[in-house]
Each structure stands twice: as C-alpha cells, then as structure tokens.
Amino acid sequence: MFSKGNLAVICWLWRSMRKLFLLLSLLLSHAAHLEGKKDNQFIWKPGPWGRCTGDCGPGGVQSRALWCFHLEGWTGHLSNCDENNRPPKERSCFRVCDWHSDLFQWEVSDWHHCVLVPSNLGQAKPRTAECVTAQHGLQHRTVRCIQKLNRTVVVNEICEHFAPQPPTEQACLIPCPRDCVVSEFSQWSECSRGCERQLQHRIRAAISPPLYGGSQCPNLTESRACDTPMSCPLGEEEYTFSLKVGPWSKCRLPHLKEINLSGRTALDFNSDSKERVTFRHQSYKPHHHPKPWDLEIGYQTRQVWCTRSDGRNAVLSLCMQDSFPLTVQSCIMPKDCETTEWSSWSPCSKTCRSESLSPGFRSRSRKVKHVAIGGGKECPELLEKEACIVEELLQPCHRYSWRTSEWKECQVSLLLEQQDPRWHVTGPVCGGGIQTRDVYCAQSIPASTIQKTKEVSRPVKKTLCLGPAPSASQLCNIPCSTDCIVSSWSDWGLCIHENCRDPQGRKGFRMRRRHVLMESTGSAGHCPHLVESIPCEDPMCYRWLVSEGICIPDHGKCGLGHRVLKAICQNDQGEDVSGSLCPASPPPERMACEIPCRMDCVLSEWTEWSSCSQSCSNKNSDGKQTRSRTILALAGEGGKPCPPSQALQEYRSCNDHSCMQLYWETLPWGPCSEDTLVTALNATIGWNGEATCGVGIQTRRVFCVKSHVGQVMTKRCPDSTRPETVRPCLLPCKKDCIVTAFSEWTPCPRSCQPGNATVKQSRYRIIIQEAANGGQECPDTLFEERECEDISLCPMYRWKPQKWSPCILVPESVRQGIMGSSEPCGKGVQTRAVSCISEDNQSAEMMECLKQTNGMPPLVQECAVPCRDDCTFTVWSRFTPCSANCETSRSRRRQLTGKSRKKEKCQDSDLYPLIETELCPCDVFISQPYGNWSDCILPEGRRESQRGFRIQGDGKECGKGVRFRAIACSDKNGRPVDPSHCSSSGYIQEECVIPCPFDCKLSDWSSWGSCSSSCGIGVRIRSKWLKEKPYNGGRPCPRLDLKNQVHEAVPCYSECNQYSWVVEHWSPCKIHNELRSLRCGGGTQSRKIRCMNAADGEGGAVDNSLCNQDEIPPETQSCSLLCPSECVMSEWGPWSKCPQSCDPHSMQRRTRHLLRPPLNSRTCAEDSQVRPCLLNENCFQFQYNLTEWSTCQLSENATCGQGVRTRLLSCVRSDGKPVGVDQCEQRNLEKPQKVSIHCLVECVVNCQLSGWTAWTECSKTCGHGGRMSRTRFIIMPTQGEGRPCPTELTQQKTCPVTPCYSWVLGNWSTCKLEGGDCGEGFQIRSLSCVVHNGSISDLAISVDDALCGEMPFQDSILKQSCSVPCPGDCHLTEWSEWSTCELTCINGRSFETMGRQSRSRTFIVQSFENQDSCPQQVLETRPCTGGKCYHYTWKASLWNNNERTVWCQRSDGINVTGGCSPQARPAAIRQCNPACRKPFSYCTQGGVCGCEKGYIEIMRSNGFLDYCMKVPGSDDKKADAKNLAGKNRPVNSKIHDIFKGWSLQPLDPDGRVKIWVYGVSGGGFLIMIFLVFTSYLLCKKPKPHQSTPPQQKPLTLAYDGDLDM
After folding, report:
1. Burial class (CB in 10 A: 0-12, 13-18, 19+), 220
2. C-alpha closest to that of 1197 among 518, 433, 436, 486
3. Three-state secondary structure call for residue 507
4. What does the pLDDT look like over 197-210, one tens digit per residue?
5. Is there a contact between 1096 and 1114 (Cβ–Cβ < 8 Å)?
6. pTM for the whole thing?
7. Least confident of 391-395, 1373-1377, 1497-1501
8. Is 1299 strand, coil or helix?
9. Nearest to 830 by CA among 798, 868, 865, 857
10. Distance between CA 1099 and CA 659 in Å, rounded?
11. How far apart are CA 891 and CA 777, in angstroms?
12. What tens digit of pLDDT does each residue of 903-926 get?
C-alpha cells in the first residue's frame, strides 16, 4: 500500500505529466500542420481576363479572379498560397470603342510560298513515287492589326473587336518534284592531227532548274580520249608552250634592306598637315606605326611560268618572248574605312503614352574619318536605329479632336449668284442660303476641367486629329416675312359711346371691323388696321328693340284696334341685357291700329327699310333708305278709300356721316430694350458682371390717321381701339466675341538654311463666336507673323585636291632583285592629298564634304615613267577656235620629244596620233512635241469667291483657256538639251475653250390672275414661259406644256356677299282688264334690280355679270288686286325653321291672318300651310369645306428654303352651293384648326468646289514620261437639281522634257594578261557620262563628264580579275544563253505568274592529268515574264532487234534530259515476260516466246508457250496443234473477251505457278487417297484384277494446262 505522502507525490507527478503531455500534443499538431502546409503545396491559378472597362483607349482596366489550388485539385483559402508569387489581379488595357473602327484595320500580306506539310517527325515528307500532279502543302501569311494613319502595329485585340482575324495559313498544292532539265549534248569537239594524247568533249546546257525537291542537274560535260591512229615515238610528241602569269600578290611594304637609300616620298593625309613629308629609310622600321591616314606605297608581285599543252610545266626558256611580263609593280597599301565611335543614343522619339501602342525610336550615328582605299574594307552603316520601350511612368499623350466655330450668318446671295451670275442685291433677301463655319483641331480637354477653364483650346495642326473633319458648310434658311391676310369690312355699327361703361358727352363713334385670316410671318411682316371709326352724335350703347304683334280690334271684327308691343333692351353687340341699362323709359305696351272693314281699302304691311344707297355721305349726295306698302284690295261703296300712291312709299336719310374714316396706324415694334424694373428681378449675371439675359420691353409709335388726309390729332380716334404701344419681350443675351488662344508659333527650321532667304514663323487664332447684342467686340488681329531668329546659313564645303605626287616606282633594290633590271621606268603609282574645306578655305571634317557631294576625288592613280624605248610626247595643245559655222571642226596637236622623234615605231600615226579632230559645238536646236495635249487650263482669276467658295458654273469653270504640250529639245547631233534652248517655258501652247453650261431660263412669274370663283373657293393661276433652252450640260427645264409654259395654281376665296343683287320695291299691281269698272283682278308688277359691290363705300352699281347669275331676282311678277267683296288675307309669313338634321318627318309651317272678311258668306282661303323638311329642297345642311394643301409658296424674294402651304376654308351648302362662312359660323360647326403650315422647298445648289491646288512636283526629275498634276475638292455636293460636280477633279500636264545625265558602265574589256599568254589577269570597263531622255538605251549619247557631277569612285566596279585558260587547263565555259521562259504548270494551267529561265557554265577537261582540279559547274536562274507552259513526253524509235531508242521531248520539240516521269519511261530493250526458259525456245521480235526451227509451239490457254515439240515430219504438219502463226493472229471473238476476265489463270505473268494451284492440288490429292482407300475397302477382292495400261493419246487443244504432264 502507498502512504499518503507517496500518494500526494504521485498525484503531483500525474498532474505535471498530464500538462506536459498536453503541451507536447499541441506542439506535435502544430508541427504536423506546418509539415502538411509544406508538403501539400498550394499554387495560384488565375481566371481569364475580363472585359476591358474604363475610358476609351489605353486607359482601360482588366481584372480577373484568383484561386488558391492544391496540387490535388481542390481549392483552399487564399492564405495557403505564397503572397510573393501572387499574380496580378488587374492590368491596364486598351479599351476599344466603336469609333476606333475608323482608326484600325487588319493588314494582310500576300501568301508566302507553298511548303510541304511537315510529317510527324517535323521534317518535310520525302519525295515519293505516289505524286501524280501535286502534293499537299501549307502557305502562310502575316496578319497584323495596324493603325491606319501611320501604319504602326498595335495589339490584335483591337482589330478583333470589329472583325475576326483573317486566317494566317491555308492549304495549297505544290507541284510534284521536278528534276533539272538539260539540253542535248553538242557535237564532240574535234581532235587535232597530232600524235599526242588528246581529249575531246561535248557539253550541254541547263534549261530548267530543279524545283520542289527534284534531282540536281547531271554533269553538263562529257570527255573522252581521241582516237589517235598511232602514238608518237618516244620524245617526239608535238607540244605547244604558253607563258602563264599568276595573280598579283597582296600589296606589301618592302623590308628595310629592300629600300633604296635615296628615300621615298609619302603623303600625310591628316587634316592638320598640308605639307609633303619625306620619309627616309629610317622610317621603315619593323614596327613602324604611321600617322593617321598616311598613304603607304608598297609593291606586289606575281609568278610567271611556262606550261606545256598537256598541262605540265616546262622550262621558262621555252616560252621566252621579246618582252617579258611585268612581275612587280607599285601599289597602295590597303586601308580600311575609319569611322568615329558611335555617338550616344538620342532621346526616345516617344515622350508620352499614346493609343497607338507603337514603340518609339532612338538613333545614334558615327562619322567617316577616312574612306577606304586600296581595296580596304568599305565604310559600315553610319546610322543605327532601334525601338525604345515606352516607360510606364510617361504621361498620357494629349488627345486631339475636331472643334468648330459657331455657324456664321446665312448667305442667300451665294445661291442667288449661282442661278444668275449678274444678280445683285436689290432689296431684302430671304429663303435658302449657305452658311459656313471654321473647323480646326484642338487638344481635347478632360470633362473635369471644362468648367474651370474659360480659355478655349488653341488650334493645332489638323494632321493631329483623327477621323473625318466636320462639315464646314451647310444649307440654311432666312425666314421670309409675309403680311397679314384680312377679311373684308363688316357693316357699319350703330353710333355708340367710346366707352359704354363710362358714357360721356354726346359724341360717339360708328365702327366697322375686319379680322385676320392669316397672321403675318417674319420680322418685316405687316398687318393693316382692323378697325375703322366715324364720329357720330347722340351715341347710345343700349337700345330698346320693339317687336309688334297683330292688330286686335277693340270692338267687333273691324275698325279701330291695338297692337301689343314687346320691348327688349339690347347692347351694341346685339345681346339682351337688363332693361334698366336702356337710357329711356320702355316704349308703351300698346299701339293703335285699324282693321279694315268689309268695304274698306286694304293695304299691306310696310316692307323693311331698304339698304342704304351709300355707305357714307359726300358733298354731292346723301344716303337714302325707302320702304313701301301696296294695295291689296280696293274699297267698296261706302268704304274707306285707298290712299294716294304717294302715301304708299316712305323715305329717310341714312349713312349721313362723312366718308373720311379714322383709324389707328402703327409703326413696327422697336428693338427689345432693358426695363430696369423687370430686369432687376430676373436677370442672370455673366462672367463680366453685366446683365446678359432677361425680360425687356418693346415700344412702337401709334398715331391717328384720317383716310385720304393723313395723320390727325390722337383724340380724333377712339381711345378704346388704340393698339398697345408697349409689350414685354425676351431680352437677347449679350454675346461677347470668343476667340481661341493663338496657336503655337510655326517652328523655325532647326537645320541651317541655304542662301539669304528670310524664314518667317506665324501663328493664328480663330473666332468661335461673333459679338452680338452689344457684347465685347472681336479683336482686329487674328494672324501674326515674325521673322525667325538665329537661323544659321548652311556652310558650303568642297574638296580641295593637291597636286599629284611624282610617279613612284617599285624600290630599285626590289626591282633588281626580282626583275634583274635597274632602269627606273615603267608603271608606278602617284598619290595626292584631298582635303575638305569650307567657303572661307578653312579645313573641315571629311564627313561634311561627303554629305554635299556624291563621292570623293580619287587619291591614287596609275602613272608611268617612260623607259628608254618608249615613245614620249608633249602635252596636247588647246583646241583651235571654232567659227560661227556649225559644220566646222576643231583640232589639237602634240609632238614627239627627245629620241622618240627618231624611232621608227613612234612614227606610226595609227598607234601614236599627233593630231585629234572633233566637230565644233553647234547652237542649232530642234524641238519636237512630246506627249499628249494637257487638259484645257483656265487662267486663275484674281477675285476669290465669298468665304473661300468657288461655285461650279461661274466664270472660272468655263471659257477660254490654254492647253499645253511638252517639247523635247535636242541639238543638231540628236543629244537632248534643256528645253529652254527651244522654248522659254518648255511647252507649246494653244488656245482652247471649255464650253459653259447654260441652264434652262424661264421668265419671271406673271402676276396672279383673278380668282376663278366670285363666291367661295376658286383657283388663281400664274405662269412662266421658256426663254432659253439648256445646253452643254446645263440644268434641265421643268415639265412644260404645249405652249412652253409652266403654271402654278393656288386656291383663292371670294367673299360671297361682296357682290350682291339689290332690288327696289315692287310697282303697284297693273290690272290686265282695264275695261272693268272696279279695276280689280289679276295683273303684273315690276321692280328694278342692280348689282352692288358691298366694299364700295359710294354704293355705286357694278356690272351685273359680277353677281351670281343663278340668284338673279325676278324683275316682274304676277299680282292680283282683290275686289271689294272678296276676302283679303295677309301675305304669308316666313316658314318656320327645320331642324339641322333635316328630318323628313318634321314639318315646317307658315301662317297668315285675315285682313278683311268677305262681303257674303264665302269662306276665306287657308291661313296656314305645312310641308315636310326635305333635304336640299327646303332644308339645307352646312359644312366647312377645306381645299387641298397648296404647293409650297415662297416669298417673292426667295428661291428656296422655308415657305408656307395653305388651304382655304369655306362654307358649302348640302346641295353644293357655296355660301358665306357666316352660315357655318352661325351653326357653331367645328372649325378646322390649321389653314397654313410651314414647308421647305429644296434649294437647288450647284456643286461647290475649292480652288485648284498648286501644281505638284514633276513625277520624274528628267526625261520623258514626267507628269505634274493639281487637284480640287468638293466643298459642298450638289443639292436638288443643281448642276452636278464635274468628274474632272484632277488636271494633269506633261512636264518639260529636261535631259537626263547618267554615269553608264561600259562593257568589260578582254582579259588583259600584261605580257602573258594565259593565266590570271584583269579586265576593265569605262565609266562615261551619257545624256538620254529617261531610259538608258542604245540612243544614249556620251557627253562631257562634268555634266554628270561627281564621279562615283569605286575601283571594284571598274576593274575585276579574270583568267585566260592555258592549253591543258581545266576551265569553265562561257555562260550559255538564257533558256526560254517557262512556267510551272499543272495539267496545262499555270501554277504561278512569274516564270523562270536558266543558264549554266560547265567545265572542259583538256588533260587527264588536270581533271581533278576542275571547277564545279554553275547554274543561274532568274524570274521572267511572258512564260509558257511546257509538257514533257517520252518518245521512242521503232524496235530493232528488241532494242529501241527512248528519249524525253519537250512540247516545243526540243529533246531534253529530265522533265519526263521516270516511272513512265518506256522500255528500251524488249524482253519476253515470262522469260523463255523452255527447251528450244527463244524471244521473238513480237516479244513472245517462240520455238526454234524444226519445233512447233504448244501454247496454253492463256497464250503463253507451254513447250516446244519437234515436228515429226511433213505428214504431221497438219497436226492438231496450235502453231505460232495462229497465236499471232488477232482474236476478235467476243466470246474470248467475255471469258478472258474470269478464266482461271494458274500461272503468274512471269510463268510461275500460283499458290492456290498448290492448295487445290494438295486437297485433290487427299480426296483421291480417301476415295481410293474407301474403294479399296468396299471393293476388296481376293485377287486384284490387273489390266494393261491403254496407249497414250496425243495432246489436243483441249489441254487444261496442268503442269505435270
């Protein structure tokens, strides 16, 4: 048992261990976590980039998602991945916007050559025999996205936004491999008759190179030994010997011991020294380093040996000649071109980040210190460029956009001048015109800074703005002003107070009114006065209107009675008002009257007062009104008699007022001016603190006018009708002039300038907004110019050559050591110093002269020191002077000097001429026209059209002009010379005429005719007639009628009450039966009628034809005068009104009453009548009538632009009769809203062109074929029926033919060996200056070298090494002729546009000993045009002893090697197949096996020979066997053809047994054994029966072909 102390210790240990265990477990788990994090690696995986968002261009942003992936494929928290390797989540990008489509495009190159499809191993497929016509290939091309403006390459994603990327590769066909094609061999070369061993050769040329992997050319040379009849005896071979010279060695300096102690001369070409320095022998030290650019003269040597014709060397003495070849000569030590070190790189040309994404460029240069000489290394490139990376820290480039000024004023005169060049302003013009604005390029301002800046961006070069520029001109319209159209005057009203609300005095006015039918338009539109008034007395604003009832008798049925009067108070407008307003007391309610009794006279009621005879009173007459009544029945006995005739009529005066009407006249509204009270409330404050907008007031003068008199006092006119003199208006905003800032000064040239020309720089600014409404005016200066400062003049540099040094020969010690001679003569070298100097003779760097000249004068030239035996001469004299005659010649002379005068060889004038003669220059020149005539060119006018426009059709586009034709000028010898010798301008000129187009001309519009209807709607017509027809492309005429007129009709309206019939009262009834005493009964009565003009204030009658003839009132009517005893009724009252619907079920009624009862009891006639309301008989409906819209009517001053289309409103009765508009207005019919709308007449705009640009530079600097051109541009295209733009926007003319001077290389000379017979030499060619007309041909003529300028000094182009083969050497032939041009074709169709032609050089072996040293044969191919397709076919000769010749022939008949397919080559040797292996058999001429003589062929069924059987004898000739002749006989049987295809063939074509035969034989053998064994078992007998074998029968033709016979 444990004690308590031990137990406590144990518990403590347990607790401690538990804590330790827990700590260890935590540490282990953390370590495991770290280990897992290390082992289970996580990697970043980004998603695809999203769309580019943000600003257009390079300021876009792309983002993508990022995940943290475990290697096992599951995702984890982002913290599991290493933050250091975290890919970027965003990147900048180029955001493509729609407008970029005009800036970028795909650029696609041509397809490259087709190449074979590579196999899986990455190599091209080998050539196989399967290729028949072509093989599959691929061709590629370059596709890139470029910016259109500067052709720079950008990323493809930009173009992919608009169009998919074009494919970069496509399948193609490559023709089958074509072997090299060569011609036939030439004939064998001839062998000489000597007895030594010789070779003869034959050669052939390459016709077509190997293509598409074809075989290389075979050997072009064949050699063979000559057949010598006998070999030479030993030692007596006949050989020829030739002196062979080797190539010159490299130039080297002589060793110290080789230097002549007399010293040598060298030249120091350092620019610091101009002195000639003499180097002594101590200068030739082994390690001598000369000063920069010392010309060192060394020497070079060559070997000379003697060769035998068989190629072997011989003793030199066998080749000795009179003059031994030179073996040592002076030379210039080669020195390479020396340049300075590279300069530092220039700054990157790209200084900001732009949208183009193209890199910038930087460059560095170096200068030439010394040019190469003596065959040294030529100068390397002097300028180096490389792309430089645009740094991310660069600021974005400025962006530019097109800006425009506001549109300038509308110019109508531009269009009117088009239609009539003689047009001039005669009054206000309106309608269509042209307005222009300035278009300029400026830097784009970010939107955030636009509000902050008031200054508009300054203009920059227009080339900085991309995309098309906005239009600088447009059509516009100046609204035309039209006056109001008003109705006719109403009737004069009653005499009323001026103000009925406050009546004062006894003076009043009578008024008449008219209303506006169509409002005025435009600022100058005017409305006439609408109210006229006449003063009157006793005005009354309110009047009692009394209506009378019928007469009611007081007692009984007749006699005295009374009428009931009904009075209504009405105002001046005819409206019922309260009776208290009428000034007087109401009239009495009763009025006395009398009803006639039975025997009384009966009178009718008084008629209405007639209309007043005059509308006003004048001095001569007053207006009158009448009314009358008639006798209806006569009085009887005792009755009341009838009144006299005078009492039947009453008269009263009317319209007694004066004819002088008063009305208010107004002047036009004045300008809108500020009203300080109103403006202070609602003004807006501009930048400068002044009020710029708001509400103002307009005023106008108003005065009182009396007709036919003029202005009178204001109080004469009623103040109530006075027009307003003040009205509010919108105050136009003040507009200050806004101009751009000045552009940057045009840059002054950084480089120097030639001559004393002053160079100016300028700047300009553009008016964006003109000043208006009192705003700040524009500045006067818009263009500034100043001279450039600190411009340096270009210094002129030139070469300054020193004198040539004395001729320097090879050092004497060297010459003696090599040549063994000591005479100091022969070829040498002389040098000179050439320095570059400026105009003031100061030395300059060589690079300055190289920039300004074509080359450098030669520093070295060959010279000669004459030897004792050489001929020496004096210097040539000057040429003798020429006379004026062109036919003369001039000469120069020289003489022999010293001992040369006595030498015989020097006397040979052919070798050493002493006189030279040439023709004198002749100043006679011949001109010859060249090229076509130019276009007819009009002289430039001095006057510029308005605002820079030129209008097609004005004086500058037609009329008299000049056309030019260039001349070619040459001298008498045919050499081209400057055309100024023949003509001052270089042209011949002649007048020409461009016919002017004439438009169709019509007269002006006639005045409008009268309205065709006197009442209601009619038509007014006006017309134009043809004055001139169009021609020469003028604007055509509109459609004309038969009278060559064009009409225009508009609707018109005539007031229906303008002319009306006026009737007088009826006369008394005239009884027909005058014999009756009572004078009663039927009769007639008459009246007068006349036509009156309601508008005529005088009331005079007019012609009756003006009134409506259908409504003419009757002048007579029948009447009756009742007798005393008859019943008398009143006249019928009016019919009651029908409803507007004219319902036939509704009735209308009229009544009359009894005036006198009859004497007896007879009843009176009816007192009422009823009739139905019938439409268009007694009931009418009314409706408004609208005409169609008229054509677009322009103002008289306008030819196009905004006009008005009108339609007229009238009232028409349902029977079609036009009535007054008041008839419709009384019925409150719905009135149409618009009777006029605005419209647009398209302006006829002729094509507007810019002026001609200046003539371009000539397309060629000299010679024929040069052209110069000028262009013009369309500013505004044709509008409507305007004259179209000319097709000729470019004019061309031939340039003057100036002579061309060119250096021309001559042909290479023959190979010069300098004394040897064969070996290495050199050939030279000359460089001459020729004059020509642009193409160097045989016609080029040599002229003085000075005309071609500096001669390009290059030894390599004037001298080259060559070799002449020695007898026995193996050497190359000359080049063969170029073959004909051949195209690559497939099945006769061309495979390519360019053909090829070839030539070759091959080697010739002259000696077997030298054949190993032969050079390689050479093949050259060049492209050509105009090639043909050739095909190659095998040709074969006839068989001869089973052999024939097979060759390849081209389709043009040339026999070739190569070109034909090797697989299709016919056999040249005929062999039997299968081979003839049977005994006694052989291969016949027919290619089949036959038997020898004495044997007969036994054939199988397949036609092959089975075996040869000996012919038994003559008796057996007809044996049953198939002979050879029978086999060779042609088989025409169809049966044979049928079975030929499927018959069993046990043998292969080569005669071997087929495998299936063995199988069938084996199977058959087993079956036979089985059958034999079975038969044996079944038929077994104790003793087998034996029989003798039958005799073998001979083989017949039915033999089946078994082998085992």
Report:
1. buried
2. 433
3. strand
4. 778 889 999 999 99
5. no
6. 0.57
7. 391-395
8. coil
9. 865
10. 12
11. 82
12. 888 888 888 888 988 878 777 888
